[in-house]
Design goal:
The termini are far apart. Helix 10 crosses helix 11. The strands form three sheets. This protein has a seven-stranded mixed sheet with strand order 3-5-6-4-7-10-11, with helices on both faces. Strands 1-2 form a two-stranded antiparallel ribbon. The chain has 510 residues and is an alpha/beta fold. It is built from 18 helices and eleven strands.
Length: 510
């Protein structure tokens, strides 16, 4: 066998027949002997491949005449195409290369490309004699959501997910009266939010009440409260628990601000023993302590929608005077009126004032009597007669009829007053019921004792509903979001600390 794949006998037989034809042609033509010998010489000098082409009749007069090969696409037949052998292009003609459009692996895995839709294009292009310069992909429309719906649905679910819930409070103003910027990470771009602050003397129960309003249960462990109450060790040594302002926001976008006790003797003791250098404008420790309390009160009167004044006995006249002083030195937050009248939520020339609710905590049975309630309301109304604070019409026993036995027209005043009994009384009642639950014949022992008021849990739920339904008026002339409120509060705190009215008030203190 030769390299071309033909046997020696076949090749020699073809040469003999060709010589015979050339001899006959030269004999008939007469003058073609030189051309026959020249062709014979070229034949003997040709390579085996050229001799094979000449034997097959593919080379004639020195030119190669190649039979065209038609390549069919793979989709046209079910059998795989064999690998074509080496082809020689025709003279003066460019080779034609057939390319199959490549389909991305991702689309093939997702079954996004239909192979039956790609084959008509290749067959049509062969009939037209034109080849595309770039591959064209035909993707089914129903496969498009499979490629894009997963990321969009993931992003949409992340945007619709509720914000992360805070477990414990964080500092808005630290113990050294410095502003903390870490609180802004819990705030969002919502405009429908409510800010509730608290003021009160030491040990009145401010942190406990704020924790219960924020969602904690009075039956739970107090160590899990969002605002840490006083520990037994702190109560024994007469110390205070909260320093500065603690911040907590619920998922219902209600911001709670718990403050350190105002006019606290334990804070004065701390300042005397630990503060090595007092500010230049506050040279005496008791002046510095009172000005700290006054700054916090003025700050809350400017940035809160509602403030709870917590007290645990009848009326503290010193606390009322302190509240009036804070109203006097608070920063001015005007609300410009477009219509010419008084703006909604204001009572004096467009300046903003929050709602004030007097919360009498740890109330006894005598405090819930109608006569004592009437005396308490009349006293508060007389003391706050000239105040611009909103201390009427928001949270009152008269309007809602919470206390039984008090008729609608019995209480003349509508001062914002709310009473809460001692929290331990309801716990003791629950334990006594569980201890006598299986005793037969003791019917009267199962009945609750007369306390003169509803239970603590009932009144707490009523207070929570009344506080959350307070109108959310604008704090400034522009609508604030939660983050804007944070920056606005930072500016207010800075202006309170640098207020000339504060410095003048401190100079006049004895």
């Amino acid at each position: 066998m030769s390299e071309s794949g033909h046997s020696q006998s076949t090749m020699y037989a073809g040469r003999k027949r060709r010589r015979r034809r050339e001899h006959e042609g030269s004999a008939s033509g007469g003058g073609g002997g030189g051309g026959s010998r020249e062709r014979e010489r070229k034949l003997w000098n040709a390579s085996p491949q050229e001799q094979m082409l000449q034997d097959d009749g593919l080379v004639k007069d020195g030119n190669i005449h190649k039979t065209p090969i038609i390549l069919k696409p793979p989709s046209a037949t079910n059998v795989p195409n064999p690998m074509p052998g080496p082809t020689v292009p025709l003279a003066g003609e460019k080779p034609v290369v057939l390319l199959k459009p490549r389909v991305p692996e991702m689309l093939l895995k997702n079954k996004a490309v239909n192979s039956a839709e790609l084959s008509p294009y290749s067959a049509r292009s062969e009939k037209e004699g034109q080849r595309p310069t770039q591959p064209i992909y035909q993707i089914q429309n129903r496969s498009l959501p499979n490629l894009t719906s997963a990321p969009e649905s993931a992003g949409g679910s992340a945007r619709l997910a509720p914000p992360e819930k805070m477990r414990f409070s964080t500092k808005l103003i630290d113990d050294h009266m410095n502003w903390c910027d870490s609180t802004i990470e819990y705030l969002q771009e919502h405009t429908d939010f409510l800010v509730v602050g608290v003021l009160g003397l030491q040990g009145a129960g401010k942190s406990t009440i704020m924790s219960l309003l924020a969602g904690n249960s009075f039956e739970g462990d107090q160590r899990q409260y969002v605002f840490k109450p006083q520990s037994p060790e702190t109560q024994e040594r007469g110390g205070y628990q909260t320093g500065g302002v603690d911040f907590y926001i619920t998922q219902e976008r209600i911001i709670f601000l718990d403050t350190q006790p105002v006019l606290s003797s334990s804070m004065l003791d701390y300042i005397i023993n630990n503060e090595r250098k007092l500010p230049q404008e506050y040279m005496l420790p008791h002046v510095y302590m009172e000005m700290q309390s006054l700054q916090l009160a003025a700050f809350l009167l400017t940035v809160c929608h509602l403030i709870l004044i917590v007290q645990d006995w009848f009326i503290d006249l010193k606390l009322i005077r302190f509240l009036q002083a804070a109203e006097m030195v608070k920063p001015c937050s005007p609300l410009p009126n477009i219509d010419g009248g008084s703006c909604p939520g204001t009572t004096n020339g467009g300046e903003y004032y929050p709602h004030i609710v007097f919360l009498h905590n740890k109330a006894t049975q005598e405090d819930f009597s109608p006569e004592n309630l009437q005396d308490l309301l009349c006293s508060l109304e007389g003391l706050l007669r000239h105040s611009n604070l909103k201390y009427k019409g928001s949270v009152t026993f008269k309007r809602h009829g919470i206390v039984p036995g008090i008729q609608h027209g019995f209480l003349d005043s509508e001062v914002n007053l709310f009473l809460l009994p001692h929290m331990d009384t309801e716990q003791d009642e629950g334990s006594s019921k569980s201890g006598h639950g299986n005793t037969s014949g003791q019917i009267f022992s199962l009945l609750p004792g007369y306390k003169g008021s509803p239970g603590f849990n009932f009144l707490l739920n009523k207070l929570r509903g009344l506080v959350f339904s307070i109108p959310r008026t604008q704090l400034t002339h522009a609508t604030l979001t939660e983050k804007n409120w944070f920056h606005y509060s930072a500016r207010i705190w800075d202006s309170v600390k640098k207020s000339p009215a504060m410095a003048e008030y401190a100079r006049l203190l004895p």
